[in-house]
Structure formats: structure tokens, C-alpha cells
Amino acid sequence: MASSLLLFLLSFLILITSSKSTPTTITIPLSAPSFTKLIVSSKKPWGSLNHLASLSLSRAHHIKSPKTNFSLIKTPLLPRSYGGYSISLNFGTPPQTTKFVMDTGSSLVWFPCTSRYLCSECNFPNIKKTGIPTFLPKLSSSSKRIGCKNPRCSMIFGPEIQSQCQECDSTAQNCTQTCPPYVIQYGSGSTAGLLLSETLDFPNKKTIPDFLVGCSIFSIKQPEGIAGFGRSPESLPSQLGLKKFSYCLVSHAFDDTPTSSDLVLDTGSGSGVTKTAGLSHTPFLKSPTTAFRDYYYVLLRNIVIGDTHVKVPYKFLVPGTDGNGGTIVDSGTTFTFMENPVYELVAKEFEKQMAHYTVATEIQNLTGLRPCYNISGEKSLSVPDLIFQFKGGAKMALPLSNYFSLVDSGVICLTIVSDNVAGPGIGGGPAIILGNYQQRNFYVEFDLENEKFGFKQQSCA
Ligand SMILES: *[C@@H]1O[C@H](CO)[C@@H](O)[C@H](O)[C@H]1NC(C)=O
Ligand SMILES: *[C@@H]1O[C@H](CO)[C@@H](O)[C@H](O)[C@H]1NC(C)=O
Ligand SMILES: *[C@@H]1O[C@H](CO)[C@@H](O)[C@H](O)[C@H]1NC(C)=O
Ligand SMILES: *[C@@H]1O[C@H](CO)[C@@H](O)[C@H](O)[C@H]1NC(C)=O
Fold this sequence. Notes:
Belongs to the peptidase A1 family. This protein is mostly beta strands. It has seven helices and 33 strands. It starts with 5 loop residues before the first strand and ends with a strand.
């Protein structure tokens, strides 16, 4: 979180035409741009639950039999100017609606909680200055604190926690000792609170009693609650026993507007798991260590820029047993992150192929993005294609607006970020984080049943 940098930049939308001068470049006309807001949020990859431990727990538990055949739940996913995408969920009896960042890079679901919720450094554009709306357990008849002996306390803290439930050892059955507070460190910011059992309600679809949720009473740099969609047992997909979930992220040009797309939760019940035609697939890899068990690892084999295969060393592409390296898909990261050695290769290749344009050094210094070009004098622009090639042959050819953005009048920058540290970052972790900016206008699915990631380009708005 030390590296957390929130630059609030005005950017223009790049309009792309289909005219291509060569198969590996995209040519864009410099037509009248329209305004869009853009937040640069650098999220480091090593943020995760502090207290991780290995444990086994079946995914689907406490699922009440549905009134109707619950198979698909669609809920609006809204682009937000803090750099993420937001969903609303209803917890409690009667239900209280709270907003959450949809985050595939973490697992606990938590909301800002109680009237005494404190949030430090939480001034985000278009987030109410009068205080972030909070969930009030007092007003819910279904709110229960998680007890120290509750298996879900061990699920979060590991089996060692049982040794700390001393009160329970003496009073045996009627133990009032509760599960200790959780503290979660994210790449940017953190949160702390108490674990609750609550009812999660999808109106007219499904009611899930006894859902494990965090009641956060203190946070740093959190615009909303977080709905963890990661791979650990406490995540929303795990607790609901989802077979699949999918989304299609609309452009950040629609940030803080009512324009949304659907987040689709698929339990596979009723008529079975839905199928989408025309997808490219790549398998999810096993997490290299339990410390990174939240993450959806995919194997990125090649980065192709124009005609050039960037020669990324193997150790960055394949996660090692030490947990370093590899690529994850993270909806909670804005711009794709690449560890410095990888990023340098990518940035240098763009610099080489775009050497005839004027570098905007001042903007580079100001934004931390690189390369940036002043294209105000140009009549047209040729930018090399950027293609991510995954295991199994799946190719993600990014639309130009997913990797170059106009960040100042007449200046475009590559929207990929890095830390400026040589070698693996502190604490290691994934070398490449595929952020939401690069996922926009792709239909993306997390097929949990078949352990694979699927995608196809489409317009999401
Ligand atoms: C546990 O508490 C309940 C209600 O508070 C009480 O009725 C019961 O006798 C207690 N049982 C034990 C073993 O203390
Ligand atoms: C729900 O599914 C079951 C079997 O999967 C079927 O027998 C039943 O008719 C379905 N009910 C509705 C309301 O569709
Ligand atoms: C950008 O930063 C570099 C290194 O800090 C410095 O040498 C250079 O003068 C700066 N350029 C501008 C235009 O601010
Ligand atoms: C870009 O170049 C134009 C001249 O072609 C200049 O007027 C303008 O100030 C430059 N913009 C930046 C941000 O450097």
C-alpha cells in the first residue's frame, strides 16, 4: 500500500476504426475525442489475506433448496472511477443493500459495518463524502458473530486458531468466545473487522442463510466493501458452489454512470451450466503455494507486439514452487501489472516500433506510465498490435483502447504498469496481473467446474 498511487487523470477516449495498414498494426484517426475519466491505481500483486493456512472444505455448503430452480443470477456490474467494478448485494433480515468491488484477486466478502465504521484515506470521486454507507448488524435479526470453535473461524485463520479458544475449552458447549478479528492487506489499503454469519439474498432468486461475511469496522483506502471472487473457500463463488461466473466489463468511459453489464453467477442447477459459443479457453493452473491460493493463475506463453515475440524469461511466465512468477486474472486491478524485467521488455519493444513518434517525457514523469507519445501533430497513428497467447493456443488480441489511452491533450500512453524494482517484488507472487482495463470489451468466464478461463472479444455496453 506504500506504493499506492492514485492519480486522477483526464483522459480522452481513443476511437478506433477498423482500417488497418498492416495486419499487425492498428491505425487510428485522431478524430475529436470525447472525455472519459481515468484513475491510475497501482495495485501490487502480493496483497492477500494475512492469515492464510491450508485447509480443506467443500465448496458448496449451506445452500438452501431454492423456491424456484435457481440456476443463473444476473446482477449489474458497474464501472467506477476508483478503477474497479461494483456490484450490489443484499445482506440481513430485512435485507440491507451494500455496494462491493467485484474482486477476483481476493476471497473474503466484507462490507463497511456498524455506525462507527472508520475509513482512512477514503476520499474517492463520486463516493459520498458524508460517509460510506454501512451495514448495520443491529437492524438485522439474522446477524450472528462467528464463534471461536466454528469451523469457519479455522477456515479463515487456519486450524491453529483452535488453540486460542481457551474460554471454549473451559465452558465447553456454551462458549461465547468469538472468532478473532481479521485483518486483510490489499495491494492498496487494508481492512479489519469481525466475522459474521448473515443471510445473503438475491431477490426472487435465492436466499443463502449462514453466509460468512466480514463486518469491517476499520479500513484504509477502500471505496466500498469487497466481494471476493477468488479461489479460497470463503469467496462468494465458493460459498455459493458456483460452477461458473462470467462478466463483460464496459469501458471506464462509463465510470459512475448507470451504464452496466451483467455479472452472471451460474450454479449449474436446473437446466445445467450455460454454454457460450466461440470462446477461446486456457486452463487455470494450480496456485504455486497456499499463500497465493486466492488467485486465478493462467499460463501466458507469449506476448506478441506487432510481429515480434517478446522474449520473456520462463521464470516470469511459469510460477515457481517459491510462489514467484506466473500470470493471474484480476478484476480488482485496474491496469495490467508486469514485474519490472517483463515490463521493460514490453515498453522497449513499443518504444522501438514507435520510435518515429515524439516521446512525451513530462507526461511520463507525471503519470508513471511509459511510453507516452505526443501525437498532436500527427494525421494518423500506427500502433503495433498487442496479443497475449495462452496455453492451449488461446489468443487475446487487445483492442487498441485496451492498451493505449489518451491521457492528456494529444498524448497517448501505454496503460500497463510496473513497480520500479528490479527482480521479483517484495514477497514475490505473480509476475503479471491481467487487470480490468485490459479485460474490457471481452466476454470473460471463470469456468470453475472445468478449471478453465474463457474469453472472446465483444462489445459489452
Ligand atoms: C447454554 O445456554 C443456554 C441458553 O443460554 C442454556 O439454556 C443452557 O442450559 C446452557 N448449556 C450449558 C451446558 O451451559
Ligand atoms: C426443478 O428441477 C427439477 C429437477 O432438476 C425438476 O424436476 C423440476 O420440475 C424443476 N422445477 C421447476 C419449477 O422448474
Ligand atoms: C523526467 O524525469 C527524469 C528523471 O527523473 C528527468 O531527468 C527529466 O528531466 C524529467 N523530464 C521532464 C520533462 O520533466
Ligand atoms: C505536444 O506537442 C505540441 C506541438 O506539436 C505542443 O504544443 C504541446 O504542448 C505538446 N503537449 C505536451 C503535453 O507536451
